[in-house]
Design brief:
α1 runs parallel beside α3 and α1 crosses α7. By secondary structure, this protein is of the alpha+beta class. It has a 4-stranded mixed β-sheet. It starts with a strand and ends in a 6-residue tail after the last helix. It is built from 9 helices and 4 strands.
């Protein structure tokens, strides 16, 4: 079996879908969490100058979605057919498009503008997209097929951050999505991971 080493910051962030997929599939890996100072030293030596990085038997790849997709294939959660795989990719891509602008909440020097963007996200962007995701989730709580895929895990990771960053019942009335969240959080490996993972603000 290959050896895996996942390197990221001391946060959930862009590496959390990968960590959840490792947990769901029961794959052992080295979970390396860097401080900002450690990252400054490592950055010039990396492939693209960003994190996360996954090393598979010493061969490194980066970009969070490429990493998550690879792990999903390894643990049988990428989709059972080419069409299912494409639909899982579609959901994961949509989650990525929704979450990408959220980084500005933390890095904008203008805090007032950041608060305006947060308000727009919570009041407009998030509800609109949650309604969209509800249409794609089945009554059994899966975005694709009849078992967990990386689409479900990616959505869970995003909403897990949303609930902490913006407390509230954002899935009220969306029973299919609630079932997605339940299916992911009740996976035996993920139950153990969530219980043991370090507490971080995001």
């Amino acid at each position: 079996m290959p050896s895996y080493k996942l390197t990221y910051f001391e946060t959930r962030g862009q590496a959390e879908p990968a960590r959840l997929l490792f947990a769901a599939g029961g794959l052992q890996y080295d979970d390396v969490r860097l401080t900002r100072e450690q990252w400054k030293e490592l950055k010039p030596k990396t492939l693209m100058g960003n994190l996360p990085i996954l090393e598979v038997d010493g061969a490194a790849i980066c970009q969070s979605k490429a990493i998550a997709r690879l792990i999903a294939k390894e643990v049988g959660m990428a989709g059972k057919t080419p069409l299912e795989q494409a639909r899982a990719d579609m959901i994961a891509d949509t989650v990525d498009e929704l979450s990408a602008p959220c980084l500005s909440f933390y890095i904008l020097p203008d805090k007032n503008k950041a608060e305006v963007l947060k308000k727009e996200f919570v009041e407009k962007t998030l509800p609109r997209n949650v309604a969209l995701f509800e249409k794609f989730a089945s009554a059994e709580g899966y975005f694709v097929g009849n078992s967990l895929t990386w689409a479900d895990v990616t959505f869970f990771a995003f909403m897990d951050w949303v609930i902490i960053a913006f407390p509230g019942d954002h899935l009220k009335g969306y029973e299919n999505l609630k079932k997605v969240m339940d299916n992911v959080s009740s996976n035996q490996g993920i139950v153990k991971y969530l219980k043991e993972r370090p507490e971080t603000p995001y």
